[in-house]
């Protein structure tokens, strides 16, 4: 998928004025937050699980090379194949080669964010393959020719009316708007596709080193139909997805559904190990795993290692006020919201995704819900710092920041200026009690007024009161 | 291919500031694999069977309890007629010996698109979340769990365990390690991809009915 993160500001502005999008976001926001909160309240062990999960992830990352080698050995022992891809282009080539070797014509896909990351669909279509997304949300956006706007609810930005239009165009009339009819229409349209697929591609929520298994979690069952009915099953996953044992995977599973969709457990959790066995009646003839690095091994080195703990639950974006206002497309790449604002600059370049780490109020809500305790606001601040030291921050902002430092590190100067500014603003807004425009804060007052501040600063009042008593 | 693998592993080690792990360090990891540490588990007092039924029903599955193995076909037929389901059935070979109604058209092969109902033997159930564990074998092909519109799972009370950890022993079941597929199923197929509204029967079974024996 092409990178559009440099268009963040204009995309965000468009999003704020898109009424359908705002309607869809309103609907989603509260649901996710309330359902997760209810699950967390039900489980007294939740905090202990978070702590254990963060520690376990750190242990895995510390020994990532060893666990990956163990995983590879176990996959081979089960009759599967592991392929290693340094970057997106290599991952695409590996998958295209497999498709060509088995004479594939139709490819079905379960939801996989890594396949979005490596731009797989475009490459498959260019190679003449028919690609069918089977997750309902992914199917909707495939029909719309759009990218996912959320990592677990890809079509969260679409209203039912929009889905109705898309389905009418794709399946023929009559146009239906009942959700049950729409879900049914997708079910009927996709049934046959599963059976005719040559290759089925899924993601992998976890890769189990002990058994050489891949584990997927879905509510719809589409991932299972995809991987069971195709002749060849290909799993795409980032290298950080490996966990030592099934016991360890269980720890993450207890957190994943609760954090993601606010369910105690998702409907289907599936552990797959290798291709069809001798006495099996169904299942794929070949089983492949494509391990994608794409910058992750380098991320291990620096202060951003904690980002590799991410289990892609989406809780951070569900709780993010910025994501809640503009939706996922404004972020301009595969991963939106707080986790995307960290990952996109790290994978694609600090300069090409300049705005993302800066479009954050550092309110900390994301970190407080992250099931693996990633300190997202700290990482965003570190990215800003890196942008500054690498001179990526624009000259005007650097100047402003330098001036701010001069003032903020000299309390006498700070307070003197504060007194002056407070008096000026108080006079300007004395009549109406609010300021429609503030010099130097044009962007901020574009969408709202500033209440007129008191003429005297807090410190002045404080000193005054002290003298009185 | 080898080159990519070696380069990725080398970069990981470089980032971690070390070379390949020393033998004693790998031995520690091997020991951890053999006996993984215990992670926190949700504690509960509720009786395992009650909890399993309650959780399954909370996610729109239905449960019928019968006293004996031989009662299963009758309970299955009742579910079928009550819901007006056509008797085109796939039955896991593990259950083929039961006396199925003579008007059913059924077989034990993989499920094709014309199969409307499946009857599947459970391997275990986990009371923690009320989740069925179904494992792939000639007795229970994976297509039975996803292709038919409706599924009946036959579970024995003594197959219910407390936590997921207690169920993972299935990996020791066969000499070959884990069964090829382990399906943990917690209800009928569902989606909330359109306006966050839950809708059953997205791609997998619309109805999930559990016949609990014992
Ligand atoms: S950063 Fe944390 S909250 Fe966000 S998707 Fe990853 S695991 Fe979930």
From TrEMBL, chain A:
Molecular function GO labels: 4 iron, 4 sulfur cluster binding; metal ion binding
Gene Ontology process terms (BP): lactate metabolic process
Keywords: 4Fe-4S, Electron transport, Iron, Iron-sulfur, Metal-binding, Repeat, Transport
Recorded coiled-coil stretches: none
A Pfam family of this chain: LUD_dom
Domain 4Fe-4S ferredoxin-type: 301-331
SUPFAM superfamilies, alphabetized: alpha-helical ferredoxin, NagB/RpiA/CoA transferase-like
Protein name as it appears in the record: Iron-sulfur cluster-binding protein
Lineage of source species: Bacteria, Pseudomonadati, Pseudomonadota, Gammaproteobacteria, Chromatiales
TrEMBL record, chain B:
Domain LUD residue range list: 118-213
Pfam family, one: LUD_dom
SUPFAM superfamilies: NagB/RpiA/CoA transferase-like
Signal peptide: none
This protein's name: Lactate utilization protein C
